[in-house]
Every structure is written in C-alpha cells, then in structure tokens.
C-alpha cells in the first residue's frame, strides 16, 4: 500500500514523515535512496528479537551495523551512548553514514543524540515501532539520555532527515504499550485538536483501536495536533508547552506508583491520562471547564481502558511532594505555594499567562483534585462524572 507523506515543520527545520501499512519495501527503497556508505541501526534487544527480519529488509544491500542493548531506560545512559559511538567509529562510519533509530522512544532518543554527535552531525532516520515514539517523540527535535540524577538531563535538539513507519510494526505491542501511546494521542485531542475527538471516540467505541486503518488515522491526527503547536516553537518552550497537559500530575503519579509497585505501576501514557483528570478537575473547580467537558475527559480515559482514579498504592502527600520538583518550574515567576500547570479554559483552549499556556495552581487545588480521584470509582460516578 502506498505510504501517506506529511511534511513536519518545527521552527526552521522540516522533514518528511511517511507512514502506511505493509510498506517495509517502500521504506527500504527510501533508505537506499539516501546513498549511505553505512547504516547504523540503533535498536533494543526486544525489538531486534521481534522485528530483526524487518530490520534486515530495511537495510537492503547497504552495509549496516546494528547496535542493540537491553530494552528500557537503562539504555539512555552516557555509558551506552559512549559504547555505541565507539563501536560505530571502530566500524568505520563516516559523514556519509546514516543513523537509523529502529524501536521505541528510548532507541529513538539515543540514536538522535548519536547522530548529532558523530562528526558534529550525520543524517538521522527514525523508524518508530511504538505508538509513543510514532505519535509523540519523533514529532519533537528533543533528543536526550538520563543522568544518574534524573531523566532526560543530557540532551540536545536535532532534526531527522526523515521518519518512516509501518503500522504493522505496532501489532506486536502489548495492550499496555499500545494504550500508553493512545493516551498521549487523546491528550493532544483534548488540549489541542478537539475537532478530532469525535473520530477518536468512534475509534474507541469500535473496540478495535489497533486495526491498521485506525492506527493510520491516529497517526495522522497526532501529526496534525502536535505539529500545530511546535511549528513555531522549535524548543517547546512556548506554545509547545501545551503538550505537557496532564504531565505535571501524571509524571508525579507515575513516579510514586513505580516507587510503590515497580513495573506493575501505571505506564507513562496511563499516568498522563490520570494527570489529565487532575488538571480537568482543577479547571472545572475554577469554573473554566464545564461539567460536560469534564465528563468527556472521563469518557475518553475510561474508553482507553485506564481506571479513572489514583492507584491505591499512591499517597497524595507523595504526589504533592514530587509535583513541587516539576521541570516546568522557572517558566513562571517562582511561588512557594503554587506550581506552573497546563489547564484548559475549554477543550483545545489552554489557560495562559501572557503568551505561555501555563498558569499557577496552588497545592491546595491540586490536593482537592487528587482527593476527588482517590475516591473509589463508584463514588467518583456518584459525585457526577
Ligand atoms: N523526545 C521527546 O520529545 C519524547 C517524547 C515522548 C517520549 N520520549 C522518550 O521515549 C521513551 C518512552 O518511549 P517508549 O514507550 O517507546 O519506550 P521504549 O523505547 O523503551 O519502548 C517500550 C517497550 O516496548 C518495546 N517495543 C518497542 N517496539 C515494540 C514492538 N513493535 N512490539 C513489541 N514491543 C516493542 C521495547 O522493547 C520496550 O520494551 C522515554 O525515554 C521518553 O523520555 C521522548
């Protein structure tokens, strides 16, 4: 099937994003057209096991090396970056080589940084294999690894030469991984692109959000929503901050849940979904979101299979403590009793301070919203949502 192609514009950078179904041969032809002397595939062991044959097909007849590592955040380290760079250089890569990220957001971020560093910049191609990577991370120029102190502390901005994906690669994702990407997509609809909500609900109601046709639509809608706010905001420090909707509380809930339950904790996307409910409750309490708009949040979140409540293992006091350290501190004038938050004045309309889609929210407001979400599900329904 022919690929759909969109041009992504982020600040003064632009690149093509082509996607389709059963289109590995078309992607391979595009990669061959880059006339690389070596392809440097960056992936993880899990993706390699599942999709190693696809990777070989993509490489075609171009000389290729494959750099793989155990899956997960342990890959986003300086040690792994150094080891991969050394291996690539010893294998003889040159300025004509192309780094190809083949995997989720983790190999994508690592590959992005490698491409930026090798000879001060070689071509980068993203082939995302998770919905998070395809619908979120490759639509950003941010490339980062973690430091021993925290996540995404060491990074840069770097544009790919192109992004390609075949939605068939998503068929091996677990329901948890798939849902995580769909939650980020739902965030974009609620905060940026409410015109897509009706179709999103139809996809959810169909009970089959993972059909190739549904995934192609979701991908296209994500591209439209995310590009709308990053087009004039290369560094995601202005209008792009709306992409943080649900993240202030969501990220804190994710951290606390992982401390309590380890790998059984909420996925990133599911935590963001609960974080959106926190933000929606605060907006509703301020009289900025209607009852119906709050209900739409609940319908979308539950439709995606996320329980609309704070996990029982998570303590409100811990969430508040983590929120106090949120990385959006510094965008607004510092206040000891409040943190910058993305709130909505209506679906698709962020509340603003000046030009920024951020407002101060007091710890008391956040606590009240978390308390509403700590109620058992039946009680949440009984209080009207
Ligand atoms: N640059 C950005 O703006 C941005 C945006 C969002 C996320 N991110 C980063 O992306 C990372 C999260 O992305 P992710 O969730 O894709 O993480 P990931 O790359 O670790 O993938 C998650 C899991 O899915 C597995 N996987 C990948 N493709 C698969 C497939 N097709 N079938 C089955 N399993 C598959 C991986 O092996 C891994 O175990 C984080 O490090 C985050 O910081 C960056």
Q: What does it look like?
A:
Strand 3, helix 2 (45-59) and strand 4 (64-67) form a beta-alpha-beta unit. The termini are far apart. The chain has 14 helices and 13 strands. The protein has helices at 24-32, 45-59, 78-90, 105-117, 131-135, 175-191, 197-205, 212-230, 247-261, 268-285, 291-303, 316-323, 363-374, 377-382, and strands spanning 4-10, 13-20, 39-42, 64-67, 98-103, 123-128, 142-145, 154-157, 162-166, 338-341, 344-346, 349-350, 359-362. The model has no long low-confidence stretch (mean pLDDT 93). With 385 residues, it is α/β, with parallel strands linked by helices. The strands form four sheets. The chain has a seven-stranded mixed beta sheet with strand order 1-2-9-6-5-3-4, sandwiched between helices. The longest helix has 19 residues, at 212-230. It is globular. Nicotinamide-adenine-dinucleotide (NAD) is lined by residues 44, 46-47, 50, 71-73, 76, 103-107, 109, 129-130, 132-133, 136-137, 140, 142, 152, 169-170, 172-173, 177.
- The chain-level mean pLDDT equals 93
Q: In CATH, what is the class of the largest domain?
A: Mainly Alpha
Rg result: 21 Å
Largest β sheet strand count, sense and barrel closure: 7 strands, mixed
- List each distinct ligand once: nicotinamide-adenine-dinucleotide
Give the key terms.
385 residues; alpha/beta; Rossmann fold; Dehydroquinate synthase-like, alpha domain; globular; binds nicotinamide-adenine-dinucleotide
């Amino acid at each position: 099937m022919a690929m759909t192609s969109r041009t992504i514009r982020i600040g003064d950078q632009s690149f093509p994003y082509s996607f389709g179904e059963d289109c590995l041969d078309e992607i391979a032809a595009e990669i061959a057209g880059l006339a690389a002397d070596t392809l440097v595939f960056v992936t993880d062991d899990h993706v390699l096991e599942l999709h190693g044959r696809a990777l070989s097909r993509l490489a075609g007849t171009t000389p290729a090396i494959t750099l793989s590592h155990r899956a997960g955040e342990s890959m986003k380290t300086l040690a792994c970056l150094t080891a991969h760079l050394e291996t690539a250089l010893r294998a003889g890569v040159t300025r004509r080589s192309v780094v190809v990220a083949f995997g989720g957001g983790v190999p994508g971020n690592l590959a992005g940084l490698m491409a930026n560093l090798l000879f001060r910049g070689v071509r980068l191609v993203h082939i995302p294999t998770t919905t998070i990577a395809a619908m979120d991370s490759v639509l950003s120029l941010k490339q980062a690894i973690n430091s021993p102190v925290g996540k995404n502390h060491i990074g840069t901005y770097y544009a790919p030469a192109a992004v390609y994906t075949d939605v068939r690669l998503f068929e091996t994702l677990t329901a948890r991984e798939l849902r995580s990407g769909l939650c980020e997509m739902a965030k974009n609809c609620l905060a940026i692109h409410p015109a897509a909500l009706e179709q999103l609900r139809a996809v959810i109601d169909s009970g089959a959000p993972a059909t190739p046709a549904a995934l192609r639509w979701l991908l296209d809608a994500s591209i439209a929503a995310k590009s709308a706010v990053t087009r004039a905001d290369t560094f995601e420090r202005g209008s792009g901050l709306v992409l943080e909707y649900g993240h202030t509380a969501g990220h804190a809930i994710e951290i606390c849940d992982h401390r309590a339950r380890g790998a059984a904790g909420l996925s990133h996307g599911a935590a963001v979904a609960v974080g959106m409910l926190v933000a929606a409750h605060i907006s509703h309490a301020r009289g900025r979101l209607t009852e119906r708009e709050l209900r739409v949040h609940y319908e979308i979140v539950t439709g995606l299979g996320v329980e609309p409540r704070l996990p029982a293992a998570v303590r409100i006091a811990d969430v508040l403590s983590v929120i106090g350290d949120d990385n959006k501190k510094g965008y607004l004038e510092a206040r000891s009793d409040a943190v910058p938050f993305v709130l909505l004045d209506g679906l698709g309309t962020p509340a603003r301070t000046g030009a920024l889609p951020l407002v101060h929210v007091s710890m008391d407001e956040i606590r009240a919203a978390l308390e509403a979400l700590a109620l058992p599900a039946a009680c949440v329904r009984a209080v009207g949502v």
